[in-house]
């Protein structure tokens, strides 16, 4: 994510418009915060937050993201500031087509530009709010200009010199147009890591419905349900994943855990055996966790005469038709 | 005497209750958490987690040295993930810091760009 200053690489050539893109887009309702000296970070951040319905003054962000000794703001701190306001920070793929697709879906994009040369980088943040394909321009809230119309080649030239870094601010429960499951779930987990659990839970739910075939999305949703005290719902989420063929070893392990918690010793062991026979080799921490689960379940006292509560049968994938 | 007995009984009762209510939570550590499941896919983040404790104080001190109000520094550090913190520990003084690049130096860039486009200079080398 962070490139090394002074070595900003030129990643690829100047890109052209994707063939299927709209003729012009200008996202409505994006506020304008003209920057003061060195304050393009707070200004761009306030602009982006404002577009998601959060009215924040750039001045109030300075203490959070401005680094006086560097006369600027760092990318990771802008992202952290988004997360602190329950916005999922999704970094786009470094690709002009992805930028255009996000704009078409109505999401403004905060970009890093470099107006210097490799030995003398000059970094700048701006928010892209649209484009005019006929005129070959991008529309930006930039510096002290409310509606900067920048030629595509100039924009691309400055953007690729900053490794085409771009981020969108996503309100909880929304999924960006160009998101991939892997990157989105990681961004959601980053929310959880900094204790934004509610926002993370809503992002996990959104991920599970956007990518129903993704086991990690189901695991994340079930864990959030469990943390909210809804073990039954979590079990159903994981059972559905298995039935739908969207289960991996972690799904089986966590489902075995849920079964064991409500006294299903045999069912849990049967479920866990499905985790121990994966198609792909397991990462070491996962294999260790599964082994620990097995030991814990085996240490459970067996029910009287092998009796188990109702609904203890392990979940299995529906046979392919 | 009687009061002591009652107190003892209450203490043992609450101990029993404590054991019964807390046992399942203590025993069941078998669930794989979301963050762990994600991090199992990229070992680099595990390394970041190990370095995290050291990096936290280090980055905080360096931020203050770069002029951040000490009162703000702790909160800023807390909002970073372990992986981000590890990267910052490595690059705080070098990572891109967006400031006034456009406002002041855009003109310099435009001049260079015009020269480049007209073929006078060739400093914006393309990746082959």
Key descriptive features of the protein:
heterodimer, A: alpha+beta, 9 strands, 44% helix, 14% strand, elongated, disordered N terminus, B: mainly alpha, 70% helix, 2% strand
Q: What is this entry, summarized?
A:
Chain A contains 12 helices and 9 strands. With 321 residues, chain A is α+β, with helices and mostly antiparallel strands. In chain A, the strands form 2 sheets. In chain A, strands 1, 4, 5, 6, 7, 8 and 9 form a 7-stranded antiparallel β-sheet that branches.
What does this entry look like structurally?
The complex is a heterodimer of chains A (about 325) and B (about 130). Chain A is built from 12 helices and 9 strands. By secondary structure, chain A is an alpha+beta fold. In chain A, α10 packs antiparallel against α11. Chain A is elongated, with a radius of gyration of 24 Å. The model of chain A is unreliable at about 1-10 (pLDDT under 50). Chain B contains 6 helices and 1 strand, in the order αααααβα. Chain B has helices at about 1-25, 35-40, 45-65, 70-80, 80-90, 100-115; one strand at about 95-100. In chain B, α3 (about 45-65) crosses α5. The longest helix of chain B has 26 residues, at about 1-25. Mean pLDDT of chain B is about 70; it is low at about 10-25. The chains are: A alpha+beta (about 325), B mainly alpha (about 130).
Secondary-structure blueprint of this entry?
The complex is a heterodimer of chains A (321) and B (128).
Chain A: E1 24-26, H1 40-51, H2 58-65, E2 66-67, E3 72-74, H3 75-84, E4 88-91, H4 96-104, E5 109-114, E6 123-132, E7 137-142, E8 145-151, H5 152-160, E9 166-170, H6 181-193, H7 197-210, H8 215-227, H9 231-243, H10 249-261, H11 265-275, H12 284-298
Chain B: H1 2-27, H2 34-39, H3 44-65, H4 70-78, H5 82-91, E1 97-98, H6 101-117
Helix pairs in contact in B: 3-4, 3-5
Q: Runs of chain B with pLDDT <50, length 5+? A: 10-27
Strand content of chain B: under 5%
Q: What helical percentage do the residues of chain B reach? A: over 70%
Uncertain ranges of chain A: 1-9
Q: What structural class do you assign from the helix and strand content of chain B? A: mainly alpha
What is the helical fraction of chain A, as a range of percent? Answer: 40-55%
């Amino acid at each position: 994510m962070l490139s090394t200053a002074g070595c900003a690489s030129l990643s690829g050539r100047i890109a052209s418009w994707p063939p299927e893109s709209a003729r012009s887009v200008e996202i409505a309702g994006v506020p304008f915060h003209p920057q003061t000296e060195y304050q393009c970070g707070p200004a761009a951040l306030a602009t982006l937050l404002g577009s998601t319905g959060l009215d924040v003054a750039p001045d109030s962000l300075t203490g959070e993201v401005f680094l006086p000794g560097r006369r600027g703001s760092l990318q990771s701190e802008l992202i952290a500031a988004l997360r602190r306001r329950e916005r999922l920070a999704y970094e786009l793929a470094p690709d002009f087509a992805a930028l255009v697709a996000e704009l078409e879906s109505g999401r403004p994009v905060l970009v890093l530009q470099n107006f210097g040369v490799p030995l003398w980088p000059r970094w700048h943040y701006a928010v892209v709010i649209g484009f005019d394909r006929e005129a070959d321009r991008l529309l930006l809230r930039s510096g002290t200009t409310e509606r900067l119309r920048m030629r595509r080649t100039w924009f691309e030239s400055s953007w690729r010199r900053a490794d085409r870094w771009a981020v969108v601010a996503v309100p909880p429960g929304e999924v960006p147009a160009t998101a991939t499951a892997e990157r989105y779930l990681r961004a959601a987990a980053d929310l959880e890591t900094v204790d934004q659990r509610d926002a993370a839970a809503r992002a996990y739910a959104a991920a599970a419905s956007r990518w129903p075939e993704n086991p990690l999305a189901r695991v994340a949703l079930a864990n959030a349900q469990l943390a909210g005290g809804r073990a039954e719902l979590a079990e159903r989420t994981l059972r559905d994943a298995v039935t739908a063929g969207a289960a991996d070893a972690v799904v089986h392990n966590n489902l075995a855990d849920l079964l064991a918690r409500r006294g299903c010793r045999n069912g849990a062991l049967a479920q866990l055996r499905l985790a121990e026979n994966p198609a792909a080799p397991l990462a070491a921490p996962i294999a260790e966790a599964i082994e620990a689960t097995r030991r814990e379940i085996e240490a459970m006292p067996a029910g009287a005469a092998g009796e188990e509560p109702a609904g203890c049968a392990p979940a299995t994938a529906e046979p392919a038709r | 005497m009687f009061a002591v007995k009652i107190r003892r009984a209450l203490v043992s009762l609450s101990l029993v209750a404590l054991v019964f209510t807390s046992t399942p939570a203590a025993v069941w550590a078998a669930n794989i958490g979301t963050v762990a499941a994600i991090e199992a896919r990229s070992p680099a983040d595990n390394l970041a987690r190990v370095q995290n404790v050291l990096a936290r104080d280090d980055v905080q001190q360096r931020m203050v040295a770069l002029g951040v109000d000490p009162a703000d520094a702790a909160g800023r550090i807390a909002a970073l993930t372990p992986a981000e913190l590890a990267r910052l520990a490595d690059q705080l003084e070098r990572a891109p810091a967006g400031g006034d690049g456009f406002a002041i130096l855009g003109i310099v860039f435009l001049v260079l760009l015009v020269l480049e486009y007209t073929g006078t200079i060739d400093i914006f080398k393309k990746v082959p």
